[in-house]
Amino acid sequence: MAIQRSVTRRLIFPFESRKGAHPTLRCKEGESLMIRCSQCQREFDRKGEDKSVAFISGSIMGDEYIESYFFCDNCGVYTVEIYHDRFMGEDEISVRGPLPKSEGDAKVNLIQQCPEPWDKKCRCEAHRSYFGGWLD
Ligand SMILES: [Zn+2]
Ligand SMILES: [Zn+2]
Question: What integer best gives the mean pLDDT of the chain?
Fold first, then answer.
């Protein structure tokens, strides 16, 4: 079953490719992976050109939060998707935005200073600054 295992691993470990891959890939088939621009409602194609510019993961009180930044060329604003992986209970996805480009750029710059933004246990300068004092 080696092949099967490697396929599964690829699905649940979303970060083996470059930044931009997304943890909600581990959603079961049929669940929505859709994200829209919070300004013009255009749908981002997260597997194509619109994949997230950056994302960062952190754990807060045992829950994992992953925030992904999507940039809309039409509007020039960011939309932030917040994936909340609850230790107890249902996962939850919420969306924040539109975020002005300057503000989003600052966050993206911060995230890019972390060598491993997908590592919720990372406690680098960027992680601490991004999540403030909330990290476990
Ligand atoms: Zn837009
Ligand atoms: Zn970090």
Answer: 80
